[in-house]
């Protein structure tokens, strides 16, 4: 038997099992120790198709029930014009319901703001919101503490335009401990979690998380928390993003640790823009704002923005030639054309103490930002030692999918900046996504 014949025989055996005498076949069966689960994208795709048909079936049934004397509509016989008409009528009804919903939510949160400031209402309010979340979302999204299972770059390689688009998103710039209660004294060793929740999956999208044995020390000169998120861009599909904070301050004895901040609120950068978003209307302009939240023993100041018609940009930096200048501190930032005066801090390090993987990739503290689809992304690198400083930057035009790369030189260090672009899903899969331990 020649080499080609032997190779062909091996392929037949590998793909179809071993052939036996008389033409019978012994089929090999692969036994897997792990369960194969569909990916997030596959679930979203399948869910979207099923949801569209269920939605149309519901509209047909509603129309037939409202018009018993007219000839009944048949789902399979609908023209595109009839489908469009049904959707438009339903959207008009939903708009009226949305107005009532927004009004009720505004009343709910106004009651929270009117709580007696002389009493510690934080525990009660937080627990009530936690219970309300459980009643509304636990069945579909799991535990209150669960983190988002939707990763960044979800649609970088497959944009899936039938279930994705550019959307308004929240851009998080900084979190600052603005004030502390007189019971506390600077410096503070802070640990805990800060997360945001959007209406894509309602789970925690973590922007800060530290354990007690890895706390961050804050002082009056530098009261900013080092952010490590979001894991993906927070989407504003129907209503503003909600803030979830549980921060503590260490004491000598763990049992004496104090609650620094405990709150769950919605974040409104600009009331008119958030109102438009909650109604599903087009928002014309991006914005930036700061808002203070008093809770427990501190006041937190969040500086965030809304980026309209945005796409998600996931940034990576890799050293492709040379090395970071010895003894130089460094900083990487990102900014967008819509709010060019604001910068997202990707990484800040001192004296050349930067973590670099075996392939040259620099470990960024943050890597996900939002960019207007019609705007521009600017990534800057700065290196300094004493009075000597080098600043370099590159510009990227947003894409709806795929990756963009450019080279940036900082002294003798050549950096490759890569941006992975992705759109956002219009809905979450109705089937629960299993935890990573299952597959």
Automatic annotation (TrEMBL):
Renumbered residue ranges of the record's region Disordered: 1-35
Coiled coil regions, renumbered to chain: none
Membrane-spanning segments: none
Biological source species: Brachypodium distachyon
The organism's place on the tree of life at top rank: Eukaryota
Residues of the DUF6598 domain: 169-419
UniProt feature, compositional bias: Basic and acidic residues: 7-18
Chain's gene name: LOC100845802
Protein name, UniProt field: DUF6598 domain-containing protein
